[in-house]
Please model this.
Amino acid sequence: MNEPLPPQPQGSDSRASAETIPAERTGREAVLERTAFERLMFATLDEQRRARRWRSFIRLAWLAFFIFLVWTLVYRGAPSSDVTAPHTAVVELKGEIASDGDASAENVVAAMRSAFEDQGAKAVVLLINSPGGSPVQAGIINDEIRRLRAKHDKPVYAVVEESCASAAYYIAAAADRIFVDKASIVGSIGVLMDGFGFTGLMDKLGVERRLMTAGENKGFLDPFSPQTERHREYAQSMLDQIHRQFIDAVKAGRGKRLKETPELFSGLFWTGQQAVELGLADQMGNLDFVAREIVKAEELVDYTRRENVAERLAKKFGAAVGEGAVRAARSVPSLR
Model:
């Protein structure tokens, strides 16, 4: 008896299915690859646009910075009030008196010239709060006060806040009158030169100082070399001469108001109340009192020249450029 044959696989359909599946997968992969590529391209373009916008922003920021820098350097904080109206001109002298500080002769003299030249300024007041500083800077300001006062025929008053010592008093002595608070610190009419000597320490450490000079006194005041008696006497003579100049300026400014004592020019300082008794100051009074009762012009106009942020940045930028130039110069090979 014949048995039925098992069903045969449909070869053509199986082959068709096997061929269709890879084709479908290949199509999907192509679509995914194309989509991924498009996304990558769009992301790249977007990144480039952001980079361009950032570069534009940086350029505009630098342009705005330089415009602001130029504007502030030109403006320099001129008085905002109407200077043609009667007023009391104020010039602040605060902090250490030094060539690179706010209380330098350059800044103070420029402010004073502006104050004296304004027709509305009935008097110029130096508002002082300083422990002192450079006798050179103080001498320049002292001379200029006397010159401007004579040229413009305007009174100059010094008003002391916390302290008016040493070089600051050198400047105040040129004023017509000095006003203080009873607790102000006034005086210190003296000169000093300080430093350190390390020769004993070097001997203990076994360090040898090798200093070569051309000129027998070129190493004068070198802290690592012993001080000779000749050098000490020479330095003392310089200090005595500068001290004499200081005393002469105080006497010229204060005149017969001074009640000279052995300690008056010794470098000691006094309270404001004692300063009035000694003739180093005239009377008690603050800025408002002087403007209201002495000058008779209560409106205050500040002529002080202050270094602003832009100027500080400009100086730092210039210092950085200069330092770079020095380094570049040092990197150049030299003949030895």
